[in-house]
Amino acid sequence: MSLPAQIDPRKLALQGICLEGEFAVKNLTRLKDSVEAVTGALKVSLQFSLDESRQPMVTGSASICVDVVCQRCLDIVNIEINTAIALQIIWSEDQLSNVAPNYEPWIVVDKFTDLDVVIEDEVLLALPIVNYHNIGECTGDAFDTKADTNLEEASIESPFSVLQQLKK
Ligand SMILES: [Zn+2]
Q1: Strands 18-23 vs 42-50: parallel, antiparallel or unpaired
Q2: The pTM is what?
Q3: How far is ligand 1, taken at its centre, from the CA of residue 63, in Å?
């Protein structure tokens, strides 16, 4: 399910709505600028609710696959960013002191706001500063793997060419 970018988060919280789906990658310009490529949709699962003091809250998770540069071999490595979401919706910075422990403030000044922007923020915060291939998958050794393949092919071919020469 493709999610609407513009939502009324307070209304969703009042109604206790759960949003599950994907955001279009084309709108994630800041994330695109931060990685080599975005290789999958931004998947989210978000529960909107009111806490015991009737503050609107959003909890859940977001994930997306991106290509980044491995800092060991400088080749591309595909990683999945997974981040937990825990936001409290507030009207202005004046309410920052009211934000519950373990929640981040989400300042929404109007009725409607861009959900994909705040989720993109969370993903950017979760993006590792340095990235590596898994052990054994990194090509960061001293040999050119292409040259190695050519060598193997050459050594496989040679016994046959010798046999053919003998037949002649
Ligand atoms: Zn690597």
Answers
A1: antiparallel
A2: 0.77
A3: 22
Ligand 1 centroid, distance to 149 Cα (angstroms): 19
Q: How far is CA 35 from CA 30, 44, 63, 78, 130, in A?
A: 9, 20, 15, 10, 11
Q: 106, 88 in Cβ contact below 8 A?
A: yes
Ligand 1 centroid from CA 131, angstroms: 8
Which tens digit of pLDDT belongs to each residue from 117-133? Answer: 999 999 999 999 999 99
Amino acid at 125: L
For residue 147, is pLDDT > 90? Answer: no
Please, where are the H alpha helices in the chain?
9-15, 29-34, 115-126, 145-167
Among 96, 104, 117, smallest CA distance to 7 is for 117
Expressed in angstroms and rounded, the spacing between residue 136 Cα and the centre of ligand 1 is: 9
